[in-house]
Structures are given as structure tokens and as C-alpha cells.
TrEMBL record:
It is a multi-pass membrane protein. GO terms for molecular function: flavin adenine dinucleotide binding. It comes from Acidovorax temperans. GO terms for cellular component: plasma membrane. Keywords: CBS domain, Cell inner membrane, Cell membrane, Membrane, Repeat, Transmembrane, Transmembrane helix, Transport. Involved in cadaverine and putrescine tolerance in stationary phase. May facilitate the efflux of both cadaverine and putrescine from the cytoplasm, reducing potentially toxic levels under certain stress conditions. It holds the Pfam family CorC_HlyC. InterPro entries: CBS_dom, CBS_dom_sf, CNNM, FAD-bd_PCMH-like_sf, FAD-bd_PCMH_sub2, Ion_transp-like_CBS, Transptr-assoc_dom. The lineage of its organism: Bacteria, Pseudomonadati, Pseudomonadota, Betaproteobacteria, Burkholderiales. This is Polyamine export protein. Belongs to the UPF0053 family. PaeA subfamily. The chain crosses the membrane at residues 100-120.
Length: 439
């Protein structure tokens, strides 16, 4: 009896070894293993090589686990069944006692294997996969060498099945942006990453999906000079609308010929020199970009031409706005560098209402309201565009749209431009959009 129990304990330990080896290799993160290898741990390199071709490794695991399970059943039944049968024979017939003894022996042996050879080692392997993987890699390598004929036979059989089904047996370790964002979200929940830092990383990945229109200064807010304007008009406009860069146009804003840097203008003012935009040395060549470019594409164009200012045109070659490098970086940094302009775009009045500028990017509105997305998301870039799409016309003052528990009400319209929108949380969430026109 004692000898059989010792054998069962050894079989459970062997099965636990194979269980930990299996789950730790599968759960081990390649980034962490690479870091351990760079720190000088050769075992991490071995685990990385095994992960690239894990077929032989898992073959050894399955051979070991199945062999141990069969031996455990044989030894356990022979060791415990007679004792249980003798115990039950006090109350039962011999046949019934033998059956009850077999069932009791089976349940106990199975329970011991499930608890100590499967559940506990696998949970341990999931908790510390890299540490266990590097410790078990060399013993598993010895088993692979020892069982080479069996490993070759079963591995080749598994490979043939994969080829027959047209499947790949190689592990796909490519890291996508979704993987990184999921890791950042998990880090934020765990407290390792600050929520604002997570938002910055999310904004970086959004550069490939957000168009330049979401970060630009719209046409009606662009301060520009006409090339033939006199010195006095230029000085007055600089004082009234102080910006770092001004487009220079011929006749109107849709005929941009270049731009002038405010530093050059201030230098002339300080030196009491006249300002004339007819001077080609003062007007610089301007970068013109289409309004369908993404923010990442605009950044690339800034890098190629060594500029930080661009004029945005639509498909009809009409100017729709301007964008600077600072505008793009503000989109990335978000609240970390939020200034007065950010505060003006979204103002939280109380827990259930916000005052939002009509040109606010939809991504910012969705983030502030904690929504997944707004309907018809691909058809607009701003809150004003959302209202136009939902109402199917140019909104008027007091028009409203209800969506997903929020009411979007137009408060102020200036020459068909939506200046302010009041967003209020409804008492009971609405699951569908309900455009309304009031007044």
C-alpha cells in the first residue's frame, strides 16, 4: 500500500511537471523572454527557439501526460481498490463491494490528478510563465532527445494533418496596434500607466485614422493677408489677430501664393522697416495638402519639406483651413497640454451636461461622453457634421438630436456655422437616434 501510494505521488509529480511545462511555454510573453535574454539568461534564448518550433516540445508533453495518466490508473486501481472493497464488504455483497471499491478508487485517483497534476500546476504556470518556462526548458530538451523516435513519429503525423487541412503550425507572434492598445488599457487598469498617458498612446495610433480636417483651423477662423495690402492694414491685423503664421493670398483666400512668418514681420516692425508682401524674400513657399490626408500623412509631409505649416484644400481646390505641427501634436498630447483653446471647445457645466463647440472633433466628443461611437461615423469629422448628417439639413438654433442617452441641442448658429452645442444626459438612455426640430 505504502509503495503504491509513493508511486502514485511520483506519477502526480511527473504529470504536474508536464502540465507546467506546457502552459508556461504557451503563456510566456516573447517580449519578456527577449528582455531576459538581453540581460544574459541563455535559458530564455532556448525558450524563444522552442516557441518558434514548438511541435516536438508539445509532443513530449502529450506523450508524458498520457503515459503517466495510464500508469496512474493502473497503479491506483491495484493499490486502492482492494482496500475499499474490503471496507465496503462489511455492508455489501462481494460483487457490490468490488464495484463500489473500484468507483471509490477511481474517484480518488482522478481527483488527485485533477487537483495536483492539472489545476494547480497550470494555474501556477499561468501566474509565472516566463520564470517557469526558462527553468523547465532544459529538462524538456533532455526528454525531447530521449524520446526522439516517438517525438519524430507523432510530430510528423501532426504536421501531415496540418498540411492536409491547409493550416499553419507556426505561431503567429506579430504584434498589432490592437495588441498594444489592449496592453496599455490593462496597464492603466493595473495602475502601472496613468490614464492620461494611455490616452496619449491611443491618440498616436489614431493619427492613421483621423483626417487632417479634425485638427485644422477652419476657413472662417484663418487670418490671412492679401499680397497688395498696405503696411498700415498689415500692422493692424497683426495686433488684432496675433498668430505665428499667416497665409498670403492673391485676391481672396482661395488663391494662396505663400505664407509669412510672424517673426519676420515683428523683426521689421522693431527695426521700423516698412512691410510689403510684394517682397518675395518675405513670403515663403507654402505647403498645400488635400483634406483627405490623415494626420500621420501630414506629419510625413512636414518632415519631407521641413515645414510646420500647411494650407488644406478640398477636391475643388478651395481652401478649407490651415494646420500646423502644433495642431497635430496637440491632438496627440490631448489634455496633457490642454490650453485655453481646449477649454473653450468642451466645457463641462455639471455631471450631466457639456457645452461643446461645433468644430470639436468627434473623437474628442466620444471620449468625453464615454461613448463607443456615434452613428454614420465615417461621414463626418466634427460635432457639427454629426448634427448635419442626423438632421439631413443645415441645423438651426434649438434643433436637437437624441442618441444613446444624450441630447445634442444647437444653441448658437452664425451664418450656417454651428457655434455651440449643449449636450445633456437624458434621464433614461435612448438606444436609437431621434432627430428633432424645435421651433
Amino acid at each position: 500500500m505504502t509503495q503504491s501510494l509513493l508511486v502514485i505521488a511520483l506519477l502526480i509529480a511527473a504529470s504536474a511537471f508536464f502540465s507546467m511545462a506546457e502552459i508556461s511555454l504557451a503563456a510566456a510573453r516573447r517580449l519578456r523572454l527577449r528582455q531576459m535574454a538581453d540581460e544574459g539568461d541563455p535559458r530564455a534564448d532556448l525558450v524563444l527557439r522552442i516557441q518558434e518550433q514548438p511541435g516536438d516540445y508539445f509532443t513530449v508533453v502529450q506523450v508524458g501526460q498520457n503515459a503517466v495518466a495510464i500508469l496512474g490508473g493502473i497503479v491506483g486501481e491495484g493499490a486502492l481498490s482492494p482496500h475499499f472493497s474490503s471496507f465496503f464488504s462489511v455492508w455489501m455483497s462481494d460483487a457490490s463491494a468490488n464495484t463500489a471499491g473500484f468507483i471509490a478508487s477511481f474517484l480518488i485517483i482522478t481527483s488527485l490528478f485533477i487537483l495536483f497534476a492539472d489545476l494547480f500546476p497550470k494555474r501556477l504556470g499561468m501566474a509565472e510563465p516566463e520564470r517557469l518556462a526558462v527553468r523547465l526548458a532544459r529538462p524538456m530538451a533532455w526528454f525531447m532527445a530521449l524520446l526522439r523516435p516517438l517525438v519524430w513519429f507523432y510530430s510528423r503525423g501532426a504536421d501531415a494533418l496540418f498540411r492536409l487541412l491547409g493550416l499553419s503550425s507556426l505561431r503567429d507572434d506579430r504584434i498589432t496596434s490592437d495588441d498594444i492598445l489592449a496592453m496599455m488599457e490593462a496597464g492603466a487598469r493595473a495602475g502601472v500607466l496613468a490614464a492620461r498617458e494611455q490616452q496619449v498612446i491611443t491618440n498616436v495610433f489614431e493619427l492613421d485614422t483621423r483626417t487632417v480636417s479634425s485638427a485644422m483651423s477652419p476657413r472662417d477662423r484663418v487670418a490671412f493677408f492679401l499680397r497688395d495690402e498696405p503696411d498700415s492694414v498689415i500692422r493692424l491685423r497683426i495686433a488684432a489677430e496675433p498668430f505665428s503664421t499667416y497665409p498670403v493670398c492673391e485676391g481672396d483666400i482661395d488663391h494662396v501664393v505663400g505664407y509669412v512668418d510672424a517673426k519676420d514681420l515683428f523683426q521689421r516692425v522693431l527695426n521700423n522697416q516698412p512691410i510689403s508682401l510684394a517682397d518675395d524674400s518675405l513670403v515663403r513657399k507654402v505647403l498645400i495638402v488635400p483634406d483627405k490626408l490623415t494626420l500621420s500623412e501630414v506629419l510625413e509631409q512636414f518632415r519631407q519639406v521641413h515645414e510646420d505649416f500647411a494650407v488644406i484644400v478640398n477636391e475643388y481646390s478651395l481652401v478649407v483651413g490651415v494646420v500646423t505641427l502644433n495642431d497635430v501634436m496637440s491632438t496627440v498630447m490631448g489634455d496633457l497640454v490642454g490650453g485655453p483653446s481646449d477649454e473653450e471647445q468642451i466645457v463641462k457645466r455639471d455631471e450631466n451636461s457639456w457645452l461643446i463647440d461645433g468644430v470639436t472633433p468627434v473623437s474628442d466628443v466620444v471620449r468625453v461622453l464615454d461613448l463607443d461611437e456615434l452613428p454614420h461615423a465615417g461621414e463626418y469629422e466634427t460635432l457639427a457634421g454629426f448634427l448635419m448628417v442626423m438632421l439631413r439639413r443645415v441645423p438651426r438654433r434649438t434643433d436637437s438630436v437624441s442618441w444613446s442617452g444624450f441630447k445634442f441641442e444647437v444653441l448658437d448658429v452664425d451664418s450656417y456655422r454651428i457655434d455651440q452645442v449643449m449636450v445633456s444626459r437624458l434621464p433614461s438612455p435612448d438606444s436609437t437616434a431621434a432627430p428633432q426640430s424645435v421651433g
